[in-house]
Amino acid sequence: MKVLLTRWHALGGLVALMTLGGCATLMFPTSEPAPGKVHPAAPVDAAQPAGGSAKPVSAAAERSHTSSLRPFADVIRGATESPGFFPLWRKDERLWIEVPRERLEQPFLLSVNVHSSVGERGLYASQMEDSWVASFRRVGNQMQLVARNLGYRADGNAPLQQALAQAFSDSLLGSTPVASAEHPERDSVLIDASFLLGDISGYSTRIEAAFRLPYNFDRNNSFFEQSWASAEMSTLNVRMHFATPRIPASALNGAGSASPPTTTPDPRSFFVGFVYNFTKLPDEPMQPRRADPRLGHFTDAHTDLSTDLKSNPRVHYINRWRLEKKDPQATLSEPKEPIVFWLDKNIPVRYRPAVEAGVLEWNKAFERIGFKGAVVVRQQPDDANWDTLDARHASVRWYVGADAGFARGPHQSDPRTGEILDADISMADVFTRSSRRFFIEETGRSSQERLAQLTAGWRTSQRDELCHYAMEAAGEMDFVLDTLEERDEFNAGSPEAEAFVQSVVKDTVMHEVGHTLGLKHNFKGSTVVKRSQLADSGYTEAHGISGSVMDYNAFNLALKGERQGAYNNTTLGPYDYWAIEYAYKPIDRQKEAAELARIAARSVEPELAYADDYDAGGFGGFEGIDPLANRFDLGDDPLAYADKRMKLSQELWQRVQVREPQYGEDPVRQRRLLLSGFRQMSRTAELASKYVGGMVQVRDLPGTSSRRTYTPVDPAKQREALQLLAEGLFSTDSFRFRPEFLSSLPPDYLDRSAVGPVSVPDAVLDAQTSALDRLLSGGVATRLLDLPNYLGAKAARAISLQEVYRTLQDAVWSEVKAGAEIDRLRRNLQREHLKRMTVMLTRGSSSLPPDALSLMRYNATQLQAQLQRAAANRRVSIETQAHLQDSLALLNEALKASMSRS
């Protein structure tokens, strides 16, 4: 996720105030943090916002407004001052913000981060949240906090700037009466900070989305915890109370849509801690750098209407830290100000070395472009009284939640230029307690459904930009560790297992730090390493197992008897060096356009393959069409990896069924291992089905390459994928389990997350239906029907939509043609296929082309004839006879039904 942020300068004479038991306590820093990166505040005309601001109130007019107000000195009598960007005054529970006249209408960065929260359904602690370029506007005796509109600009075109100011509004974040007359010497007024004890960030909407209950903000029981200020920033920590008068009875028995929190002592009440940062923007805006679509960086975008000559007025500035050499002439130089990451004191000591190693790994990329020690790690002292969520510290923090499994690497930037000002990585304790608690009973639910539940309290933009690498990587880690343990190659708690876990933490931190440096996901990074190289331990130890740490890299687990390379990624890949070079290489302004074009033109090199979340699919509603752009695949042949993952699941199942459980071990261990294998089967379904109707996509700009943007997947590869699904995923033989094993899988009787025995048919169907949905989708049908247009003279070799439909139907209904018995697993699959067929026959689909509907009806009539013959067979079981007759009846009704096609 990308948001806006700043870093701090130095605490100097910083004084912080903390309310303890209703008393105001002076707090001095126990240690002085080393200075981070600092820039002076930005002039108002650096990037004129589109939404107009009222003209500053004149001194004479302001004096007339304030004549009836209490004198400044009277209001703060007995209060203690924290001098800073906006001086803060505190007396007991009261807190005032001093607003100098010179700061009125001047932009600053306002950020609101979440220090503490509920601990479930997306409402977690240690999260970087919203930010705005804001300013204070005085209207009479009212002070408004206004978010400035920077989305539309016309720099250098004064008349059009006036039009934009009239066309596009600013937003009001909050307002409060002016609390004092103007100070005669300081030329400033006071405002009561209690207006911040309100829902400025809109958190109550997220609470309602999570629990489906109208929790109201309770101002009377909300309060300021701490406050401190420096020359660059003023920060206030607040504790906000949310409550609802009653929980509906329907919510208690699960009958209604409401679902109260489960983590609080009383579900009617909870507190959320917010950190408000008022931060000075750079006086001299950083030179922006334009984005290039051939590689992936987060951006700040705006619409530039300063000229009519642009066909596309959208401008994208990449997000990057301001990094400048101390010695511009030196080949290798330290930066003027390094990028400093603070390790929060809440990180378990066990993991701090791995976290530090993951952060510092990025120095390898910066050294290649001439920076020594560009990234620095510092540990927050255990007795420190400052919060790493303030705007002075880029940080890595740990957080705990009842269902938390995510790591996030958000950052905050100056939207005028794209300069990253701060970042706060949040790491869930998913590695401390492992991810196993998430996956004990997950049958019947897709990964997207699981994510939807866990992020119920997140905004749409947060879910769209979600990085769930940590949770999925931890699940993959457990699968590998369990398989190795079943092979007697690893023992739980052994030094080898501990080193393995530490390497996974380092890998995840490298990934999230990449986000905070401005890099997006690269879901083609894993495809640049050959399968033969993955089996080479020497190669993988030196170069890693993927071309990028920004991919969701799977674990490199060999089949039994194969050579074993490194299990997971340990270092940066070629793409990571390339992306850092584009963003951070020092370039003379006059030569920048040409040099950036030269760097980006390397996109044709195979090891720099790139694809983002949209290309991989499942992001913003987009269907991924490129089978080389995936989450959690490995090697240059994702289809071969899918087949290997299926075999590894079957190996795990075979081993766990013959192993006798030992007294004292986890009682749900075998149950968990069974379902862990099914998660890998779902991965197989996703990877293999993507080949059918797939198009390999490359990102080239006009005139930069002879490559075609879209290349259909080779027909032979598409047919191979179809066969893998037909003979593997859709086959009963892939899911054979001993009755003694299935009857010996208890739930956790002390803390039930599962009730009753595991339903293997449900688990099988969960994996199979994802493949069915993909193969019968409108997107696949359209691309297969369009395929001859891309192949020209080679169109005769193409795989047709009818071949896909017929192959799928024959695989699903093979027993009908053979007159054979149909077991329950196969009956379930056939019902799901028939359900989709009848929907297409009776309701049609706006996403399916007419030819697809015609072909589906043609194949349905063929199936109807087969079912008629099979239904007369009395040599099969009564269950099979009933299934055949029911299927035939449903199909007959569907074929007779009238349908209105638009």
TrEMBL record:
Residue segments, region Disordered: 34-63
GO molecular function list: metallopeptidase activity
Domain DUF5117: 131-326
SUPFAM superfamilies, sorted: Metalloproteases ('zincins'), catalytic domain
Keywords: Hydrolase, Metalloprotease, Protease
Gene3D superfamilies associated with the record: Collagenase (Catalytic Domain) (3.40.390.10)
Name the UniProt record assigns to this protein: Zinc-dependent metalloprotease
